[in-house]
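Quiz preparation item.
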């Protein structure tokens, strides 16, 4: 997500719009802000981490119980 936001910023900087007085700070920050889809992918990936940890623990416990 940060890479995409940085690439949008760099694209605007290459066009010279970061110092353009016609583009205000509020508009510039809205252009480089994460989109709804980027937020959705971020929250989905954050939600997958605990689920992966739970599955890892369950697999580890299942393997330990099967070894008895």
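Solution:
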């Amino acid at each position: 997500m940060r890479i995409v936001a940085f690439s949008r910023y760099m694209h605007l900087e290459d066009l010279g719009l970061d110092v353009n007085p016609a583009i205000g700070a509020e508009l510039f920050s809205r252009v480089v802000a994460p989109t709804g889809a980027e937020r959705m992918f971020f929250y989905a990936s954050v939600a997958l981490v605990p689920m992966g940890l739970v599955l890892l623990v369950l697999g580890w416990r299942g393997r330990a119980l099967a070894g008895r």
